Amino acid sequence: MSGGEGSGRLLVAGAAVLAVALVAAYLAFGGGAYEPTPVVDPCAPREWRSPDGIEESAQQFALSALDGAACELGVSRETLAPALATEGSRAEFAAELGISDAELETAVRAGLLRGIDDAAEAGAISPLVAEGLGAVASRLPVDESIAVISDAGEFLAGAEGAIGDVGDLLDDAAGLLP
Amino acid sequence: MSDRATRAALAAAVGLVLADSSVVVLALPDIYRELDVSVAAVTWVLVSFNLVLALAAVPAAFASAVVGPARLTVAGLVVFALASLACGLADSIGVLLVARCAQALGGAAAICAALELLPSVVGSERRAATAWAAAGAAGAALGPGIGGLMTELISWQSIFLAQVPATLALALALLPGAAREGRTRSPLDQRSLRPHLAANVALALVSAALAAALFLVVLLLIEGWRLTPIAAAAAVTVMPICALLAAAPARRVRSVAARAAAGVILIAGGLAALGLLPRAEVALTFPPQALIGAGLALTLSALTEAALAGRSPQALHGGWTIAARHAGVVAGLLVLTPVFTADLETERERAQLAGTAALLDASIPPGAQLELANRIAERIEQEGDKVPILGPAFEPLPADPAERAATAALRTEIEDEVDRAATHAFSGSFLIAAAFALAALIPIALARRRIAL
């Protein structure tokens, strides 16, 4: 009986050692420490990565504008970006958030203004151009404002695309200037 | 027919029936797509079988006492074969579920009655209980692998259709014994009808944990990490291999309580490790699977032996163990399915946000960035509720070397994010399952104090 009990105790102890060792090893290698890549607060200032080239500036401008709009709406930039992709996704997003068209318009304009301010601060555009762009952005219809942020394929890719939109904005701004 | 052949036929019948409680796990995605049903409905292909088996086991044992175990074994196998045929030919979820219930009814009759027949061919009730429990454990452990293999190589229907000739052959082999069986109704002593409560409660808890081990590992591999059924089937063979390797040495330890407790600890450790996987890597599931396989061999046979020891009729107490085990499986599935489904949805959303963050911050040209964002969004939309395979969204890689390298790095980062999220989505369920297994230590400890377990 004692022999049986001895081997039984040994078996239980061995099982416990194996189980604890495996769990400890997995914990030591990072098991259970999973955290998704954090989503940054859109209201916090973000440093521009490379404000020198036109493409990089355009990209940073779009991202800053997204940050600004997202901050205004109290959501993340990552949530807002796909929501602005199509009219349908915009409507779905607005319904989910319980906001009106006017509120969305205000937020998008706020985003554009933040993009312009960030661009000026990073030295990507001159303060004079920034002032002009700000004046234009505050009067842009909502669809065009959203297009500047969401239609970034054109916005960022070159003269015919979103850069063209920036170009248009610059042209418009130039037209407004004396 | 020799005793050896009868023993083999009875063990095969028990293994075949109990394999059916898990054999369709790897086929569920195919059934879900082909029969165009919801995820909740397809889960009932598993739940219905286990539920009916749990409910029918004890009545089947009473029936065995009335009609004779040999006759009931053969009748049960024939019903099981016909129901398997209906499963294989089912063209709607309703027909499939009804056929699965019929399979479980036939199966319950066959396995409970088989236990009553085994002592006469193996020499003692203890050896019969050991053989019966081992056959059941082997069937349950091998089920997912065999099912996955057949689904991948042929179709999900082939799992059921292949069982028809196999089951009928076993019924034919046992038919002479049934024909010779006298029609005697053995009176049942009311005092002997009470089940071994502690052993059966422990069996139920361990089975709930094992359901998670088999069901969730397979889901993690296929739905989480997007392995093919055949690759998943190969990956989960670690569990039955370790169960078979551990079975013989385990029997050398005389203390049933020690075997049961050690098994439960190994299962809990393995499940906890699965809940704490450091990375989404198939090889990392092998050590936990090895512990669970060894634990399964130790604890199921020990608890079944304890539940049957000195109790008569064997079929009835075997019926109680089947009822406890499959009630545990059903409880495990019903408790854990909503947990991991909700966790999967949460992690999917978090991964989507993290992936978008990585994409927006990537050093790739803005045009390509946004085109990629659209392609990724399309893939996520196409995959619906599933964990998306995002690799194709990055094809073809850009020609420019710098852009190509940056895009490839982004692809790795986003795929890694999705894999980690999918892995983490299963963590909570595995840890709950580990708690089920550990909870089984309570009835084991209580039983050890009061009576010899």
Layout of secondary structure:
The complex is a heterodimer of chains A (178) and B (453).
Chain A: H1 2-28, H2 54-73, H3 77-83, H4 87-97, H5 101-122, H6 127-137, H7 142-150, H8 152-157, H9 162-176
Chain B: H1 3-19, H2 28-34, H3 39-67, H4 69-89, H5 93-122, H6 125-153, H7 156-180, H8 197-224, H9 229-235, H10 238-251, H11 256-275, H12 286-308, H13 314-361, H14 366-383, H15 401-439, H16 441-450
Helix pairs in contact in B: 1-5, 1-6, 1-7, 2-3, 3-4, 3-5, 3-13, 4-5, 4-7, 5-6, 5-13, 6-7, 6-9, 6-10, 6-12, 8-11, 8-12, 8-13, 8-15, 8-16, 10-12, 11-12, 11-15, 11-16, 13-15
Please characterize this protein's 3D structure.
The complex is a heterodimer of chains A (178) and B (453). Chain A has helices at 2-28, 54-73, 77-83, 87-97, 101-122, 127-137, 142-150, 152-157, 162-176. Helices cover 72% and strands 0% of the residues of chain A. In chain A, helix 6 (127-137) crosses helix 9 (162-176). Chain A is built from 9 helices and no strands. Chain A has 178 residues and is mainly α. With 453 residues, chain B is mostly helical. In chain B, helix 3 runs antiparallel to helix 4 (69-89). The longest helix of chain B has 48 residues, at 314-361. Chain B is elongated and about 85 Å long. The two termini of chain B are 36 Å apart. Classes of the chains: A mainly alpha (178), B mainly alpha (453).
